[in-house]
Design brief:
The protein is of the alpha/beta class. It contains twelve helices and ten strands.
């Protein structure tokens, strides 16, 4: 009898082990995004979701839960059932929020990190009414008008906000911060003239810059962007050492089975490597990535450590 029981246990184990990854997914997957529609996070999520949906044969439904620099969506994602049917788009807010606010989740231990999707520089743009055609001219105008020029952001603690804070810290200019609940609303207000300066995620603002509705001055990465090679960097424009990039990745709740994490990693990386999606991401101003879960986990940990030091040194407070 003992032999029979052991044999049955082994057989059941062999039968059940491969069922989970092979059968998953059997229903639509909820894809949480921590910003309203229209911004870079939303653009990247929808581009990737469409391609992954094609590959897995199930819908991936983007759900926008904006607010608190992605913390609302992130908390929702951390508390979702760990069954692979709720995933989360991570953004720099995942790394900056721990230094800015009290969180009801652990930014590392409450998540199973799947892959880094892409990175992108920000693009410094100004409203056409501001007579600055270069970084040097912007600095000169700003120093003549301290506290009289507004800059918008997609929220406190975003790379959009931190880019402007770092720029002011290095150059000594003084602007007024006007935060919005996402890149979409911030750009609308910028084009309406309510703000004059914006360090927008490149995918959000490059189209308006190309159309002449906003004036591009520089990108925030150390190297020029493949999507906009004619636009200089802030560093080469005279603000030496200036370097800020945005990033986008995907995670699931911490206890999601490793088999599902691996399946999602495989499909996301396959989507990212597909020529049609890569072309769309590059055209939008993003540099496609695609990493292992371990590589992505290490990346997020390093980002949290980096921004913790920057935010504390600059004295930035959450709102």
């Amino acid at each position: 009898m003992k032999i029979v029981v052991c044999v049955m246990a082994v057989l059941l184990g062999c039968i059940s082990a491969p069922v989970l990854p092979q059968s998953y997914p059997v229903k639509p997957i909820r894809f949480l995004v921590g910003f309203p529609p229209g911004g870079t996070n939303d653009i990247v999520a929808r581009l990737v979701a469409q391609k992954v949906s094609e590959l897995i044969g199930q819908s991936m439904v983007v759900e926008n839960r904006g607010g608190a620099n992605t913390a609302i969506a992130t908390e929702l994602g951390s508390r979702a059932p760990a069954d692979g049917y709720t995933i989360l788009l991570n953004a720099p807010g995942h790394a900056t929020n721990p230094a800015l606010m009290k969180l009801n989740f652990d930014p590392i231990n409450d998540f199973a990190f799947i892959t880094l999707i892409a990175e992108a520089p920000n693009l410094l743009v100004v409203h056409p009414s501001l007579p600055a055609h270069s970084v040097k001219e912007l600095i000169a105008i700003s120093k003549k008008n301290p506290g009289n020029i507004n800059y918008g952001s997609s929220g406190t603690g975003t790379t959009v906000h931190l880019s402007a804070e770092l720029f002011q810290h290095i150059t000594g200019v003084k602007w007024v911060h006007i935060p919005y609940k996402g890149g979409g609303p911030a750009v609308i207000e910028l084009m309406a003239g309510q703000t004059q300066i914006y360090f927008g995620n490149l995918p959000t603002v490059i189209g308006y810059a190309r159309a002449g509705k906003l004036r591009p001055l520089a990108v925030t990465s150390l190297k020029r962007s493949v999507a906009a090679p004619d636009i200089p960097t802030v560093d080469e424009s005279g603000v030496k050492g200036f370097n800020v990039t945005a990033w986008y990745g995907v995670s699931a709740p911490a206890k999601t089975p490793r088999a599902i994490v691996d399946r999602l990693n495989s499909e996301f990386v396959r989507a990212i490597k597909a020529p049609d999606l890569r072309d769309k991401l590059v055209a939008a101003g993003a540099d496609p990535a695609g990493t292992t879960p371990e590589q992505y986990t290490a990346f997020v940990q390093s980002e949290i450590s980096k921004w913790d030091k920057v935010i504390k040194a600059a004295g930035i407070k959450g709102e």
